[in-house]
Design goal:
With about 375 residues, this protein is an alpha/beta fold. It folds into two domains: about 240 residues, Metallo-dependent phosphatases (Purple Acid Phosphatase, chain A, domain 2), CATH 3.60.21.10; about 130 residues, no CATH class. About 30% of the residues lie in helices and about 25% in strands. The protein is built from nine helices and 17 strands. The strands form four sheets. It has a six-stranded mixed beta sheet with strand order 4-3-2-1-13-14, with helices on one face. It has a six-stranded mixed beta sheet with strand order 5-6-7-10-12-11, with no helix packed on it. It has a three-stranded parallel beta sheet with strand order 15-16-17, with helices on one face. Helix 3 links the parallel strand 3 and strand 4. Helix 8 packs across helix 9. The radius of gyration is 27 Å and the shape is elongated.
């Protein structure tokens, strides 16, 4: 039996722009921790080798420090790493791969930057790589696998980075195509792929491992590595999906109609709020008093979550008579309140959002003064 680990898309050096500096720093650091967990998994489960199916690095300009930290994280696995250049880190003349040799490392690394067989396990297995030499290729670089000669006693593993034709959404098939029957054509026992960031069996004996640590709000099951057992040539691979991620990236849409408590109910269901990034969309209608309660709940959740992104354009204020009575205004102030209320209720009024905010602020200020006087 041959056992190996399949991983991809580490994206070391990803900048995580748009996040606060403290958040960016921790997300960047977690990429190295994910590699460390992958290495520990391969070591603990007795993998003979590990294949990295492209995009180990987010770009060829990654810093020397990031390269060294990656190699240090990989050193927890005493077997051989086979690293494939992907579309983010192609094997151009000056690349992360051309720089790699001058770094100090205990990790055993083979850079698969040429389309030629790599023998492993004392000749019992061979890896056939399809390295990217530029960011995008129009041709299927795995085609050479078909004619690659090996003994009938050797387990054949293909290694590639790109989009399997006719199996992924159109947006994912913009370059670096891979035939969906390549495993059959090339007599592969397993085809290890990178580029799609979620774990996916895309075709017979053809798998994307996905990224070991999610880096966006996906719905395609990132955060895993694949542990693969193959009894021998021609045997069906047994593939175990093993979780390696720390953070959860959760996109949520909550419909709120009249009761702000729906927010607490949804967020309280998160198993580990402090390690969850939430992209939250709120829709519905609330009275002013419930909107204030919602704002207070959001302020309470903000420090409890690792990160919170809010989209509330679809959440509308609907002041009712109780709201307006609580403002307790008379004369010209009540006239202004009524006009703001009319603007806030009109879907065509360009000042609708500003009017709603003004009413909310007025309500909150009166509530604050009332509490102080009480």
């Amino acid at each position: 039996m041959i056992r190996f680990l399949h991983t991809a898309d580490w994206q070391i050096g990803k900048p995580f722009g748009g996040y606060p500096e403290e958040t960016r720093a921790e997300l960047r650091a977690e990429r190295f921790n994910a590699v460390r967990r992958v290495a520990a998994l391969a070591e603990a489960r007795g993998a003979a080798f590990a294949v990295v199916a492209g995009d180990a690095f987010d770009g060829n300009t990654v810093s020397d420090r990031d390269i060294q930290r990656t190699l240090d994280a990989m050193s927890g696995f005493t077997g051989t790493w086979i690293m494939l250049p992907g579309n983010h880190d192609p094997a151009v003349s000056v690349s992360v791969w051309s720089r790699l040799a001058r770094f100090d490392t205990r990790a055993r690394v083979i850079v698969a930057d040429r389309p030629e067989p790599i023998e492993l396990c004392e000749g019992r297995a061979v890896v056939l790589p399809a390295p990217l030499l530029r960011h995008h290729e129009g041709a299927d670089l795995t085609e050479w696998f078909d004619a690659a000669v090996s003994s009938s006693h050797v387990v054949r593993v293909g290694l590639a980075h790109g989009a399997v034709a006719n199996r992924l959404p159109a947006a994912a098939e913009s370059g670096n195509p891979i035939a969906d029957d390549r495993a059959d054509r090339a007599r592969l026992d397993y085809l290890a792929l990178g580029d799609w960031h979620g774990f996916l069996e895309i075709a017979p004996r053809t798998f994307y491992s996905g990224t070991p640590e999610a880096d966006r709000y996906p719905a395609n099951e990132p955060g895993f590595a694949a542990l693969v057992d193959i009894d021998g040539p021609g045997a069906s691979p047994r593939v175990e999906r093993v979780r390696t991620a720390r953070f959860e990236w959760c996109a949520m849409a909550i419909d709120i109609h009249g009761d702000a408590g729906a927010l607490d109910h949804a967020l309280a269901a998160l198993p580990a709020p402090g390690e969850t990034l939430v992209d939250l969309t709120l829709r519905g209608t609330l009275s002013l008093r419930e909107r204030i309660a919602l704002d207070e709940a959001l302020a309470n959740w903000q420090p409890r979550l690792f990160d919170l992104r809010l989209r509330d354009d679809g959440l509308l204020d609907e002041p009712d008579e109780e709201d307006l009575d609580r403002i307790d205004a008379a004369g010209f102030v009540r006239t202004a309140v009524d006009r703001l209320r009319a603007k806030a209720a009109s879907r065509e009024d360009p000042e609708r959002a500003a009017a709603a905010l003004a009413l909310r602020m007025m309500f909150a200020e009166h509530a604050r003064l009332g509490r102080r006087e009480g």
